[in-house]
UniProtKB/TrEMBL annotation:
Protein name: Short-chain dehydrogenase/reductase SDR
InterPro entries linked to this entry: NAD(P)-bd_dom_sf (IPR036291), SDR_fam (IPR002347)
GO CC annotations, alphabetized: membrane
Organism whose genome encodes this protein: Thioclava atlantica
Protein's UniProt keywords contain Cell membrane: no
Gene3D superfamilies with a match to the protein in the record: NAD(P)-binding Rossmann-like Domain
Family: Belongs to the short-chain dehydrogenases/reductases (SDR) family.
PANTHER family, A to Z: DEHYDROGENASE/REDUCTASE SDR FAMILY MEMBER 7B, SHORT CHAIN DEHYDROGENASE
Keywords: Oxidoreductase
A GO molecular-function annotation: oxidoreductase activity
Record Pfam families: adh_short
SUPFAM superfamilies for the chain: NAD(P)-binding Rossmann-fold domains
Amino acid sequence: MNTDQTQDPSQGKKLALITGASRGLGAALAEALTADGWHIMAVARTSGALEELDDRIQAAGGTASLGPLDVTDPEQMAHLAQSIAARWGGVDLWAHCAIHAAPLSPAGHIDAKEIARSTAVNFTATAQLIGLIEPLLLARKGTALFFDDPRAGQKFFGIYGATKGAQMALAHSWQAETAKIGPRVVIAEPQPMATALRGRFFPGEDRDQLADRHAEARRILSEL
């Protein structure tokens, strides 16, 4: 990650850290915040998609820093947090959009690799990131933003519903713990959107009836 501060155009701007920024709602949030003058610290595993996001942000007159990193790698995430602290001192908004959507499967036939990956991305990484990012949010009286997708108990959503539910349980606990002392924790529930993630779950769905992710990003941010 580039941390060169020479004539740094990000200085003086509000900083949004978006984990899972390369596509879907994460990318839409990045573009919406860019329009409001924020600097975006965009984190995702896919370098190509991050670069495409950066092109759109620059075309809109905004600025971004790219972190082609894996949220499940503790060393990479620790380095990210240290780099943010050194360069900006803190974070105004952390939007956690990183998610692993395991293929739908009967509960008795879930692949072991999908169990491990879903747990690592959806729960373990979230728990580790909260510990790393909390001091950065406190430094700027910032806000953490999570996104609920209640699938627990629905047929064929076993591992996704379980790990997403565990993530939300953790976020709700953090929200209750920090209600008086900060940082502020917000849990939003987006409308069904025409994203690749939803397309994997519902491939035959009429996508014209779904919410636009850019409009949904603007709605969620307006309610902050």
